Amino acid sequence: MSARIIDGKAIAAARRERLAAEVATLGFRPGLAVILVGDDPASSVYVRNKQKAAVKAGFAGGTERLPAETSEAALLARIAALNADPEVDGILVQLPLPAHIRTQAVIEAIDPAKDVDGFHPINVGRLVTGQPSLVACTPKGVMTLLAEAGVPVPGARAIVLGRSTIVGRPVAALLTLADATVTLAHSRTRDLAAECRRAEIVIAAVGRPELVRGDWIAPGAAVIDVGINRRPDGTLTGDVAFGEASAHAGWITPVPGGVGPMTIATLLENTLSAARARRGKGARAA
């Protein structure tokens, strides 16, 4: 068996193109404000890619770069100003933050209606209870990839490797809402390989290079690799041994070019949804 590649880059590009066409008809430009504290190289790359995509889609706003020594109080004051700004529809504070700033305090300071990262406890709670909300971008992007690839989710046995509040738990909630039977696995899970072999959908989000081997994958299973890890030679790899897993899986995402591009596309979709909701423009973005 040779797995079908789920091309996240192509799927994301098509969705961004449709989104830009929709933005052009609105009569206003959705505003996305991004804050980057410090000069972490990876964060700088992520923010640059997000801002480039936002500009191309016709969004307003920009990136505010703050020095690493910015105090928590100063950052919270800046967020409060953006909360009150009628031209700002979405606020994103790039993580991780410097150690002296409490991440949860920053997340909770963002207006839930402008929380386009989907991390605020109100949005997380609405997700878990099945209410409309702004959903974390990577988990929502994972569900988009499954849908675009035609992977049957209702009734499927799914396993999520990793229980982070940013990816693992919300994607498990989304799969449950989509009527999958979900196992949320973690470092204490016994015989992780055996648990994976029972699954028809495998979501790997643990941050361990090539943890998931080919013989962990049931024939025909869909494999979504959220991990992105840098090898000593500078190349990137996921949490799944791609070559091995491809010989067993029915569908698989590559790294890079799988989940990453969908995360950015989903951020833009969330921002448009927030803008429509705030400005009374009706339905949420697709």
User: Spans with pLDDT under 50 lasting ≥5 residues?
Assistant: 282-286
Count up the helices: 10
Rough outline? globular
Q: What structural class is derived from the secondary structure elements?
A: alpha/beta
Output the helix-strand order: EHEHEHEHHHEHEHEEEEHEH
In CATH's first tier, which class of the largest domain applies? Alpha Beta
How many E-type strands?
11
User: Architecture of the largest domain, according to CATH?
Assistant: 3-Layer(aba) Sandwich
User: What is the CATH homology-level superfamily of the largest domain?
Assistant: NAD(P)-binding Rossmann-like Domain
Query: Could you tell me the strand content as a percent range?
Result: 5-15%
Look up the CATH topology of the largest domain.
Answer: Rossmann fold
Characterize the biggest β-sheet. 6 strands, parallel
Rg, alpha carbons: 19 Å
